[in-house]
Write a structure and sequence with these properties.
The protein is α/β, with parallel strands linked by helices. It folds into 2 domains: 459 residues, Rossmann fold; 128 residues, GMP Synthetase, Chain A, domain 3 (2-Layer Sandwich), CATH 3.30.300.30. It contains 19 helices and 32 strands. The strands form 10 sheets. A 7-stranded mixed β-sheet has the order 5-4-17-16-18-19-20, sandwiched between helices. Strands 7-6-8-11-12 form a 5-stranded parallel β-sheet. Strands 23-24-26-27 form a 4-stranded antiparallel β-sheet, with no helix packed on it. Helix 5 links the parallel strand 6 and strand 7. The longest helix is centred in the last third of the chain and has 18 residues. It starts with a helix and ends with a helix. The chain binds adenosine monophosphate. Adenosine monophosphate binds next to strand 20, strand 26 and strand 27.
Amino acid sequence: MTTCKAFHQESLDDPDAFWSREARRIDWHRPFVKTLDYSRPPFAKWFVGGQTNLCHNAVDRHAATRPDARALVFISSETDSEIVYSFAQLKREVMRMAAAMQSLGVVAGDRVLIYMPMIPEATFAMLACARIGAIHSVVFGGFASASLATRIDDATPKLIVSSDAGMRGGRAVTYKPLLDEAIVLARHKPAKVLMIDRGLVKFSPVKGRDVDYASLRERFIDAQVPVTWLPSEHPSYILYTSGTTGKPKGIVRDTGGYAVALAASMQYIFCGGEGETMFCTSDIGWVVGHSYIVYGPLIAGMCTIMYEGTPLRPDAGIWWQIVEKYKVSVMFSSPTAARVLKKHDTAFMHKHDLSTLKHLFLAGEPLDQPTHEWMTRELGLPVIDNYWQTETGWPILAAMPGVEKTEIRYGTPSFPVYGYDLKIFREDGTVCDADEKGIVAIVPPLPPGCLTTVWGDDERFVSTYFSLFREPLVYSSFDWGIRDKDGYHYILGRTDDVINVAGHRLGTREIEEAIQGHPAIAEVAVVGVADPLKGQMPMAFAVVKDAALIATPQKRDELEKAVLKQVDTSLGAIARPSRVHFLTVLPKTRSGKLLRRSIQALAEGRDPGDLTTIEDPAALEQLQQALARTPV
Ligand code: AMP
């Protein structure tokens, strides 16, 4: 048996040999002629000349050999439903959806935007796109009209697939009105909207545009839609993520590289195989959901669980009940979810038989030591912190129990994963020593499965991710990190103004733009403030145009509520700041630069650092007074 270190080294020494071997895990309609084309750095093309299909690898090949094996289990603790689909049934549903899409004019290369709750039709829609070569762009259901409109304009979808509502905590969360408003706001008008009517919330279809899926499904009940064989580099999807500018970036994923990367990760990292069950508690709107609810487990021939609901309904034992009932062997969740569960009686966990579970994987945000330790102790299993990004599509740093069972240490996502030439750099472009803090970067070419570009903007791909130094050319993760003497890596937070709320990446600029849309606000700064449950929460500091608007505590409260509502309706409740504090001036340097780090430090009750460059010291006093004020 090899070691993680040797395995990693092997992948870097001879990537061609390494990845052409891994590529055998999937079916190729036409074999590739070149493992990697890196003739135009930093653009990497994997498995050049090969033709494959994600849906074939996730569904058809298993439906052919094990048609009755479980493929997808949909569980909603909100609507009290549970539906099991075998691989054969999944294939039929995907073909019905694919036929419906084709009847609405969708062909290979067209974009299909999916704005849906966690229901099986969302997975059918993703796989149907993959089947016919359409490029899906799933937008998280928590995003509201303005966010959705920006994504519609960037992806210019021919079709949008949506639903009346999702359910969360016993309440219906409507989708359709937000979608209608987004289409009004967007410049690009999609020709058709395919509606999955769950019967949760009444809605009025838009004539000539909205199409009811139930009747189309009936029409195509026996549809046979063959897979479209696609070049390895064909874009499979676009997934938007926040950055430092207000405009989200459309991360583009290929087809062949992604399939191979996921297939390999299922063995080496997640240790899941044919006939086993994976339960990933994320949402299809996030990268974790794309890779480890939909494509990864299915490619590996596993059964995947799709869950609608919270970890606490009907009680804090619901996830463990699912593990027991479906004999889950691989579970994947987030540190925030672990912290939520930690607040509840462990009897909810211990009353269930969890003996099938091999590991619990947690990712998306820093995993604090106490939570890591608690979860490991209570489960009596390795809890594996893994670090990655929307951009990479699969883990960058992780323990790899499928390669070697290394010691799991608390507070670290362990080692660089095979394929990633990860280094920690000083700001001058030299490499850090052990135990020295620097910027986590990847020396290209990026391995298979990582982003191939930014949708419609190759230039932005290069200027955003590869401009850390003039030399060497490296991919910047925008995270600070440290590697200790034993090779364990620690992630120490972002180098940019992106914040991480419960594992969801939010750009402070986007929130600032939403708040600035309120007529009373002249200027605003949003910073991420440490939160014991969610990791971070946005907090806003706003300057009003007219001081009379905040003349009394009541008026201030009213305006705060109105501003929060503005964020809800424009970006969605996930971006809602914990507080909006009102000031007459923001702390800035004499050259007009906002003192973000100092604002953040004060909001967290820390020392604001060097303030010799501040323009108006009174701004700090005001800020401190504002922070001390509680709402009436
Ligand atoms: P996203 O693209 O939304 O998944 O966010 C990626 C960012 O989340 C990374 O750049 C990190 O800042 C953070 N992140 C993800 N996983 C971890 C982890 N295991 N530990 C620390 N930070 C993480």
